[in-house]
Amino acid sequence: MPSVKTYEKCKANTVKKIIKIYEKNKKTSIKQSVAIALSIAEKSCKSKLSKTDIIKKELKINNFIDNKNKNKNKNKIKLSLITDYRLVYDYYIKKKKYMNAINLQNAFMKKLLMLSYKNELPESAYKAIMKK
Known about the structure:
Layout: H1 7-24, H2 30-45, H3 51-66, H4 72-75, H5 79-94, H6 98-117, H7 123-130
Helix pairs in contact: 1-2, 3-5, 5-6
């Protein structure tokens, strides 16, 4: 198998492989198969994160943090965003860019506290944040 260079390609290929395996197994639903595949892909492709991937993820996080829109759907937090936050935070810690990590953490947690105060933080998001 040719070597996959980027995180997103690695993730896509891993998801495809795992879904094919689970399609043969009729005991799991397609939603379960996708969830399992995404979870495995996140773990197995973590080492392939490039600086470009980190920049994309950080832009996504900053868009969420800076969003001042009153539309509830725009303020809604997705579990993938929490995963992206963790990946970017861990990347900065690994690269010893502690100020970047602290600034990201402070801004992200401030936004989450605001959502929590407005009762707009789902319980699943809270559990994902606390899990390590």
